[in-house]
Amino acid sequence: MGILIVAVFILNHFNQRAYEQHSELNTLSQIFEQRSLMSNILQARRNEKDFLLRNNLKYISTHEQTMQVLYNQLSTLNTQLLSQGSKDLLQNLKQKLEQYQAAFKSLVDSKIKLGLNHEIGLRGLMRKKAHAVEKIVTKQQQQQLHTILLMIRRHEKDFLLRNLSEYIVAMAQQEHLFYKQLSHSSLNEQQKHNILELMQAYQNAFEELVKGTFSVNKHIHVFRKAVHDVDPILLQLNKAIFTKNNQLKQQLDSKNTWLKTILVSLFIIITVLSLFFTEWIRRSITHPLSLLIQATDAVAKGQFEQPLNVQSTDELGQLAESFEHMRKNRFEFEKKIFDSEQLAQKALKRLEEQKFVLDQHSIVSITDLFGTITYVNPLFIEISGYRKEELLGNNHRIVSSGEHDSTFFQALYDTISKGKVWQAEICNRAKSDHIYWVDTTIVALLDDDNKPTSYISISTNITTPEFV
To answer: Quick check: is 217 in a domain?
Structure first.
């Protein structure tokens, strides 16, 4: 038996080594087949476009994380690729991705300088200067200057939207017209000087913005070209790995044929030995274990009467003895529970009968410590004229007749809050506005520390015609 195990171990060792090599190349194939590299490249392009569309810096960090994942994948591939040609392709791919990332970083820097929104960067500066000019000409009622300024801002926005040089020319013409109109305006020299300084700053910022915008477009062209060069490299890598994988698979299949023959022979020998061993196990262990399983199933179904008889002194016998002890204890426990349930059912029935009798004769309500009604019986609902939903959550002031002063109720509260019994006749008023008298007893329900947890009121209707 030991020789067979050693033989199987040796064969399995050689087989495992072959499969490890195959697994490495198979991992590479999966990377390309599942498009994980391409998916991450597309994810980086998506982050890039999200940034260009929304000008939000959060996409920059996401883009960097995606690129780091790509570089990690390339590092893994570099350690597993076998041929120098494949590694050269991988190095070329990495260079293209680095070119793409560098160009994108330059684009981000340029966009930040231009201003990611109209409040910051060159865009923010232009907006600030233009608003300052607009404030002066509007205050001085220079309508023509204001109109020209609006045209300049319009050409500025057209350029930002379309990046066409014609708007730069049109903007320069409007600026020339603005300066000419400014010189002939009725503004004083100081105002003209201030406007000229603001417009010069605005014009300088716009010139920088134009340069930056063209720089952004240049960066876009560079990184798009770099990322477009990636596709043919990926195809060549995939082809190289697929070819090598097929070669190794053919070698592995040939070795597997020899291994399977040996393993089948070993399997037959081991099977025959296992049959003899199984029969021995069945006779010494299986039968007592079967009895234990049957007893366990019976207990699980609530059948505790059948005893377990296993004649054995080994660990299985000790287990059976412990189980039998547990069964007896559980049987006694279940019997006690059954007897307790019977007593509880009888007590509950008596309580229900007593409650029924009480509800036929008395008006009953229960409140919490703050006087909020939490229970009313049918007679309370009937005599008060209120629906149950109107009474629950309310307090007894809902049926107050105004007959008793605050001293009366203060004495009531002082008595029951001390856990004592209070009894008196109370005049109440029903929902229909008629009054009724009840002989009332209020008792505090106490907890284990003899502190009130709620109050129960039991009343009898004593209303007579002379009371009404």
So the answer is: yes
Pull the structure tokens for residue 295: 């007893």
The residue written with tokens 């195990």 in the block is 5
Structurally, the chain folds into a number of domains equal to 2
Last residue of a domain, one of 191, 226, 261: 226
Q: C-alpha distances in angstroms, 229 versus 69, 130, 236, 378, 386? A: 19, 44, 12, 87, 85
365/408 Cα distance (integer angstroms): 19
Quick check: 284 pLDDT over 70?
no
CA angle 11, 12, 13 (to 5 degrees): 90
Tell me the two tokens of residue 347.
Answer: 């007590």
CATH code, 204:
1.20.1440
pTM of the predicted structure, to 2 decimals: 0.46
Position 461 pLDDT exceeds 50: yes
How does pLDDT run across 181-221, given as a tens digit for each residue? 999 999 999 999 999 999 999 999 999 999 999 888 888 88
The CATH number assigned to the domain holding 418 equals: 3.30.450.20
Site of tokens 């730069």: 168
| Structural domain that includes position 208 | 121-226
Strand partners, 460: 439
Residue 420, number of CB atoms within 10 A of its CB:
11
**Residues contacting 160, CB < 8 A, separation 6+:** 123, 209, 213
Could you say which of 226, 254, 270 is where a domain stops?
226
Q: 34 is written with which tokens?
A: 């599942």
> 231 with 80: CB under 8 angstroms?
no
In order, the DSSP letters of 197-262 are HHHHHHHHHHHHHHHHHHHHHHHHHHHHHHHHTHHHHHHHHHHHHHHHHHHHHHHHHHHHHHHHHH
**Structure confidence by residue, pLDDT tens digits, 367-401:** 999 999 999 999 999 999 999 999 999 999 999 99
Partners of 367 in the β-ladder: 373, 455
Within a domain: 60: no
Do 110 and 216 touch, CB atoms closer than 8 A?
yes
Q: What is the DSSP string of 108-168?
A: HHHHHHH-SSTTSHHHHHHHHHHHHHHHHHHHTT-HHHHHHHHHHHHHHHHHHHH--HHHH
Of 385, 389, 406, 383, the C-alpha closest to 457 is 383
Tens of pLDDT, residues 226-264? 878 887 887 887 777 677 667 767 777 777 777 677 767
> Residue 371 falls within a domain, yes or no?
yes
pLDDT in tens, 11-45: 565 556 555 555 555 555 555 544 577 888 889 88
DSSP result, 9-26: HHHHHHHHHHHHHHHHHH
Instruction: Decide if 219 is inside a domain.
Output: yes
